[in-house]
Amino acid sequence: MTPIPIWRRYARIFGPDPAADVKDELSFHLQAKVDDLVRQGWHREAARQEAERLFGDLRAVQRIGTRIGEQMERRKRLKDYWSDSLQDVRYTFRTLGRDPSFAAISILILALAIGANVAVFSVVNTLLLRPLPFPESRELVWIAPPPTSCGLSCATYSADAYEEFRDQSRAYQDVTGYEAFTTPDNLRLTGRGEPQPATSIEVVGNFFQLLGVQPAMGRLFSAEETRPGAHPVALLANAYWKSQFNADPAIVGKAIELSGTPITIVGVLPDSFDFGAVFSPGAKVDLFTPLDLNQERNWGNIVTFLGRLKPGVTVAQALDDANRVAPNIYFNTKYPQTLGRYKGSLIPVPLKDYVTGKLRRSLIALWCAVGAILLIAGVNLSNLLLARASARAKEFAVRGALGATRGRIVRQLLMESLVLSGAGAVLGLGLARTLIAWLAHQGSVALPLLSALRIDGEALVWTVIVAIFTATIFGLLPGLKIASGNLQEVLKDSGPGAGLGRNHERVRAVLVVSEVALACVLLVSAGLLLRSFSKVLDVDLGFQPDRAASIRVDYDDSAPTEEASQAKRGAIFQQILARVSALPGVEAAGMSDYLPLGPNREWDTPVPQGKTFAPGELPDPLVYVVTPGFIRAMGIRLQGRDFTWADGPHSERVVLINASAARVYWPGEDAVGKILMRDKEEDHVIGVVDDVHEETVEGGTGSQIYYPVTQQGPSSAQLVVRTSLPPATLAPSVLSALRELNPQQSAAEFRPIQTIVDRAVSPRRFFTLLVGSFAALGLLLAALGIYGVISYSVTRQAHTIGIQMALGASTGRVQRQVLAGTLRLALAGMLLGTLAALAVSKLISSLLFSVSSWDLPTYLGMALSLLLVAALSGYIPAWRASKVNPMEALRSN
Amino acid sequence: MDTAKLEFVRGTLDVLILKALVWGPLHGYAITNLIRRQSDDALLLEEGTLYPALWRLENKELLEAEWGLSENNRKAKFYRLTAEGRRQLRHEVRTWEAYAAAVAKVLAATQPPLPEPMG
Fold first, then answer.
1. pTM of the predicted model, to two decimals?
2. For residues A560 and A714, what is the distance between their CA atoms, to the nearest angstrom?
3. Who wins on pLDDT, A249 or A744?
4. Which residues of A lie inside 8 Å of B (Cβ-Cβ)?
5. Distance CA A872, CA A783 (A)
6. Structurally, how many domains does chain B consist of?
7. ipTM at complex level
8. B70 touches chain A (CB under 8 A)
9. Fewer CB within 10 Å, N or C, chain A?
10. What pLDDT does residue A688 have?
């Protein structure tokens, strides 16, 4: 074989062409054959025909050849691509290794931004995007009345209503519910050493079947176990089984003693089922017992409704169905006048909306905040790469001159950004894992489903998407910028960073301005949320949570008659309070069955004596059954007198009402001394107390009424102690005092009242903290961006600055000049950012609490902090500029 | 047998091509000539079938191809054995020899096999 001489060597002009190659090869064969035949004496034309005959089906062979050729071509291209990419990667590692501080800073920035994004995505995914952790969870609906001010009593239904609704509705496969008035630590686990507090919830027998929860061990409740007189049984929550019973594998069938009653355990629920996470955020439930509807029949509204829609039934159809059924439902079937009491108050909503609907806006705001962080980080990286690209302009020009196409150079740059963002993603994933693990264990944050948080496959996919997206946005711009530059110009020019410099600087200025604008929006949003949060903390709750603590008191007031029971209870409570008040450091002590910002209930509709009101005009006040001293221990302001132990079962009936109730009953008059009628009973109002926030810190308050424990039956007893000492130091002496009086007293937690308030504001604290830290991160990145640009432009202008200084410019003047350039950038960004922030703050206005979205202090604070940060990040380059040695600057270049 | 074409046993063409290239790079036409002459005109292959076989071998990277100039100065595609091709040839030659010996043994037999000893 002779190699083709150089003059006959040509490639296919339009790239490889397998079909033409095949044709050439075959026609060479035929010609050679014809030549041979002619040499043997054939006539040329006959020889051609003979050659073709001998060859066989020319077209078929050609087709095969083309196909194989194309296949090989494709494989070759792929192989080239991979080997090029590998080369790019190797090259990238080499260049990044040469500039480790650049690589470290970029990877750190990316890790923070990507980590924040992945963590927030996991939260959003768990709370908003993913269905609830039940089979066919879309069929589950929560049935409740529209929100009112009478607490849980108005969000629940009676036992009769439950049966009527279940039997008459056609939209549901089944309806269930649970007893809503459970307070934490409502039972004592006894008979196993020191009595331990436990929280149990009564659920309608079919509760777990309806949700589709399968027991990890044992079985669910049977129908018999929900009937009166059945042997008491319980299901254990998985966590409680593990913590209290050491995950005893033989627990099923064993009996445990709860508050003195033996109860058989029929099963253990799976680890995946967390009642608190779905229905009662921030609370834990240890065990479940079947609700006996018959026993609860006279207790009023106590059951929540939860339904599973028949397949294909929509929520709107279920609402129509509920509206049809509502007029036929009795509050209590024994009293015909209670027919139709639930008209308009049976409203099904998807369970998912009930659980996380309120958080939707906050979560979306959070998502946008991390999105902004990602953009800022991307812009920042873009900026850093541009600066580097200018410095490397010559390298690219040389590569271009040596035959690298522009596409190849852009690819190289993209590979660099991919490697950077890949490293950032790996580090960020680690950060996100830490953050998520921490969040998942924030049991005190009253957010649903938190315990289900984890970095899963979806979060990993999201990480990859975010990493590629970021790499593209920050890698493409510098790449295109470089590739579009005039390479020859760069090669000719010899100054540092000349040629592409001026153009680049303009692009980078635009980038910095947009970065500052984004940071501005973040700062304003965070500022507004922060101001809202501080306003929430300033809310007058009606009581003083600091220096007060509470503990649940166990007592036994069983007696043959109601009055005897009241007297016995009074004696027990009086004794307890006397003992506790005598402890050193205790300023006041009292008891109540419910504490503010927790569960609550209403009973009746009292009517002021001698007045008539239109039906529905009078409120159903929330009821608290308290001892003397409770009002003082909680730090509630009181006009009139407090209850005394003299207010007993046989004395005049007395009540305290709150200011809101007084305004409704006797507007403009002094309520003290007036009488409230409940049917035939006369309640004498002996005092008026301040409104106490009963459900949320941020919501308003309604009517409240207080009865003495000696005249009404409390549902439990929470001892509240006001102390001059830290509650923790008082806890042992309070508990031992209670134990002395009642050895059955469980080791319940002595909780500062402040923790109740903290829990109530925890979701807001959570979001504010997150958005706040994102804003701080945004500010930091923006500062870095400003510093980068100014610092680079100082380096580039060193020559000019040198001339200026040689001509007599003072160092101060040079510094001012650089600082002015910095502030120009910052101001432009702030102007844009303020406009954007005004629009954005309108969108988050529903998340604000008594702060207008135009809040001037927030905007001023944002402007001040941005200017300060800009000035700081501009000062370092300015100082450097003033240190330029004129002689050296002039000599170089 | 003189001019009667021997039917190619399936798969034989590949090994013949590999063998033909042992002496150095050749273009397709030269390969047909070489096989014809080395078999003393006994093996006449239908020329059309040669090329798909060549391309398949090239695709399997047993051969590699390069454009060059033929004896009479025409542009032609030359094939050469790769290291992998050489290995493959050695392997196939061994297989072929074993096969041919076995077939020959059977065909040369003059009496039926002795009964197998009972085990």
1. 0.76
2. 17
3. A249
4. 1-5, 8, 21, 24-26, 28-29, 31-33, 35, 54-58, 60-61, 64-65, 68-69, 71-72
5. 8
6. 1
7. 0.85
8. yes
9. C
10. 94
